[in-house]
Amino acid sequence: MVLRPGLCFARPVIFNTRVLSDERLRVRLTAAGISTESIDRADALRKRTGLGLLSQLWSAGEVRERVLVQVLADALGSPGIVLSESEIPLKVLRVLPSHFARSHHVVPVGTIDGSLAFACAEPNDHALAQQLHRWVGRNAHLFVAIPSAICSA
């Protein structure tokens, strides 16, 4: 993957709790074959560090990013993207200034029929899609990604 260094975010990513509560997330993770022990360890770390549960699972190497993205995409009813397996062209990364990407927890990942595709933590955020459209002058398609993976991109 072609990455731009330094896209780490100061403010935490907060999921819409009406869409995906902690309990619903735990149920989905368990259904995906992730052990309750792994989830409990990640949850304890989450409470100490403030990093989200999915990010803790991925950062600790407990679960592959692909599995977490699938769980999240299914839960939110949105397409997902596995950033660690993606190759992002440098010209795509340059369409969005890093300050905008950091403040909105988003990274451009490619093009789809003349529109731009973006990885983000909140793919159902229509206001974000509108802001991206205004910023880049093209339609924006949002794909859910693990917040820590966005930070690493």
Which key phrases capture this entry?
3 strands; disordered N terminus; alpha+beta; 153 residues; 3-stranded mixed β-sheet
Q: Would you write up a description of this structure?
A:
The protein is an alpha+beta fold and 153 residues long. The protein is 46% helix and 12% strand. It contains 8 helices and 3 strands, in the order ααααααββαβα. It has helices spanning 22-31, 36-49, 53-59, 65-76, 90-93, 98-104, 126-136, 147-152; strands at residues 106-112, 115-120, 140-144. The chain has a 3-stranded mixed sheet with strand order 1-2-3. It is elongated and about 45 Å long. 33% of the residues are buried. The model is unreliable at 1-18 (pLDDT under 50).
Give me a quick take on this structure:
This protein is an alpha+beta fold. Helix content is 46%, strand content 12%. It contains 8 helices and 3 strands.
Give the overall shape, derived from the CA principal axes: elongated
- Rounded mean pLDDT score: 83
The rounded distance between the terminal residues' Cα atoms is 8 Å
Binned, the helix content reads 40-55%
Classify the beta-strand content into a percent band: 5-15%
Major sheet size, sense and barrel closure: 3 strands, mixed
SS-based structural class? alpha+beta
Separate helix tally: 8
Radius of gyration: 15 Å
The order of strands across the largest sheet is 1-2-3
> Poorly predicted ranges (pLDDT <50, ≥5 residues)?
1-18
Topology order in helix (H) and strand (E) letters: HHHHHHEEHEH
Compute the number of strand runs. 3
